[in-house]
């Protein structure tokens, strides 16, 4: 098996040329990076901010795919801790989807008198979960799923592209052909994307605004006694 370096290779009648290799790898990287992202609810919901935010995180995913996988793992760990906390306080119907939604700042609370309106950030989660009136006001799973814009077609295309790419690489190895360095690099993108898909499997996707939750008048003291830093606007992790 030859390991000589070669330059541009035109498309042969049978096999792969430079353009085919580059196209396959770039398509795989883009699809993996674009469809795997499950960003937190943004602080602003205007169209151009959302577009810029998506472009920024796709670029980060292309340049540093390990960072996206680490963020997905870290958010899964936090959501799991939140879910355990929910169950600890007798929130028997709590799911990982609920935990992810609460952790991704998907809830905006206000009292009936309108005196307080806050987006629940990570520092507030435990205090929110502890109080039964807050738990009762939490939106149902069906509403959260309805808000989540899961791109099933995009994910299906990505899975098919990944499968096709892996079959190509594996078949070349089994036939004793050389595998290009860009193919080897792409395998790492694919593996990291699959890890991220797994960790974000139950996280709602592409929600541009939090769900507003009305609290009863009996909890008009929402936020009293909390550190002032909790009640300031916090930049979101996915900004």
Describe the structure in your own words.
By secondary structure, the protein is mainly alpha-helical. The protein has one domain. The protein is built from 9 helices and 3 strands; from the N terminus they run H-H-H-H-E-E-H-H-H-H-H-E. It has helices spanning 18-36, 47-63, 65-88, 96-103, 125-130, 132-136, 141-147, 152-174, 181-199, and strands spanning 107-111, 117-119, 211-215. It has a 3-stranded mixed β-sheet with strand order 2-1-3, with no helix packed on it. Strand 1 and strand 2 form a beta hairpin. Helix 2 crosses helix 3 (65-88) and helix 3 (65-88) packs across helix 4 (96-103). The protein is elongated, with a radius of gyration of 23 Å.
Sum this structure up briefly:
The protein is mainly alpha-helical and 239 residues long.
């Amino acid at each position: 098996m030859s390991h000589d370096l070669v330059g541009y290779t035109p498309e042969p009648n049978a096999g792969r040329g430079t353009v085919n290799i580059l196209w396959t790898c770039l398509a795989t990287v883009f699809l993996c990076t674009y469809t795997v992202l499950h960003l937190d609810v943004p602080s602003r919901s205007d169209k151009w901010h959302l577009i810029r935010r998506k472009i920024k995180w796709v670029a980060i995913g292309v340049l540093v795919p390990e960072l996206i996988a680490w963020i997905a793992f870290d958010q899964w760990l936090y959501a799991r801790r939140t879910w355990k906390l929910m169950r600890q306080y007798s929130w028997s119907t709590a799911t990982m989807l609920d935990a992810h939604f609460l952790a991704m700042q998907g809830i905006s609370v206000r009292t009936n008198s309108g005196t307080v309106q806050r987006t629940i950030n990570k520092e507030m989660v435990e205090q929110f979960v502890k109080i039964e009136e807050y738990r009762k006001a939490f939106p149902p799973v069906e509403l959260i799923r309805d808000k989540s814009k899961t791109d099933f077609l995009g994910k299906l295309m990505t899975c098919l592209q990944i499968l096709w790419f892996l079959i190509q690489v594996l078949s070349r190895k089994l036939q004793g052909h050389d595998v290009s360095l860009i193919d080897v690099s792409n395998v790492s993108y694919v593996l990291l994307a699959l890890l991220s898909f797994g960790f974000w499997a139950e996280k709602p996707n592409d929600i541009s605004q939090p769900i507003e939750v009305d609290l009863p008048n009996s909890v008009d003291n929402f936020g009293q006694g909390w550190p002032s830093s909790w009640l300031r606007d916090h930049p979101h992790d996915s900004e």
